[in-house]
Amino acid sequence: MHSDIIVIGGGIAGVSAAARLAAGASVTLLETEARIGSHSSGRSAAIFIQNYGSLAMRDVNAAARAFFENPAEITDLPLLAPRGEMVVARAEDDAAMDDYLRTAREVEILSTDQALALCPILRPEAATRAAIERSAQTIDCDLLLHGFAKLFRRLGGRTETDAPAQSITREGGMWRVATPKGEFTAPVLVNAAGAWSDTVAALAGLAPLGLVPHRRNAAILPAPTGMEVDNWPMVVNAAERWYLKPEAGKLMFSPCDAIATTPHDAWSDDMELAEGLDRFDRDVTYEVTRVERSWAGLRTFAPDEVPVVGFDPRAEGFFWLAGQGGIGIQTAPALAELAAALILDRPAPLPEATTRALSPERFASA
After folding, report:
1. Residues in a beta bridge with 131
2. What is the pTM of this model?
3. Is 99 helix (H, G, I), strand (E, B) or coil?
4. pLDDT tens per residue across span 74-84
5. Contact 175, 169 (CB under 8 A)
6. How far apart are the first and last CA of the chain?
7. Domains observed in the chain
8. Which candidate, 144, 180, 209, places its Cα nearest to that of 32?
């Protein structure tokens, strides 16, 4: 089957980009699994935080925020719900807290008493310093993903599931992707394969960029006895030893681990989770007596921990949309707009310096 553009990867990055591209081109989306959003896109903490990610991503976050606040293109329902993110620090975390505050936007400094009022299970020594981004909001990840998928279908896009790329070649100005569902051709190939992005590049005959998946564990814990947690903010240790987030009357917990691994369908590691819970125990008065369920996801980083968005200078028509490193959900609307602008030769929606910071050309000049 022939189209103008092939997108490999049915996570939020690939689906949102495919939807934006379908407004100006014929697009085929190829997904390895039986359904879209099977891996990291379905396992996110799902919260919009303006101050999350590297400094280079703050303009991207701001651009995405406008979409989240007015998502009428993909849904009549709100994508965001109030939450807030509070960053807390022990005395030994001063350097990490200083680093956070140096670039943070729209945050309020809190006293220890104010921090404990917002999250009563914190020990005072765990919040010698605190700051809150009150505008941080929970994202309805499922609504976001399937809203973009519906938009893609309305614009005539075609999705093929159970269609892993078995070989990728370039002939006569066309990329040819062989899958169990048949062969697909297009002059432009978008690599939005998440943890498998370097694998896809290798199939296409390109050297990897050094994208490395990192496993992060998470768990659901029961709420502390007698406490209503729904109005608590998300709470993050400044040195990233743990975070917690209210989740349907319970607590979602993560040890904030980042274990370098290979692309795979990630699962929770009991030892890593236990080590994180031990760190958490030092900072709270709440005793964790059981874990209701646990899981893991992969957060894939480029060597400089900045996403890669742009045409590869080594191969005509090969476009990278990868390396989102745990920020893929909240940046998807903005990065999809950027990808569509670059591919369809339209004005970039982000500042030129930000677009350059994301380009794969930065690796060629390194």
Report:
1. 87, 109
2. 0.93
3. helix
4. 999 999 999 99
5. yes
6. 38
7. 5-63+140-210+303-364 (3.50.50.60), 104-134+212-301 (3.30.9.10)
8. 180
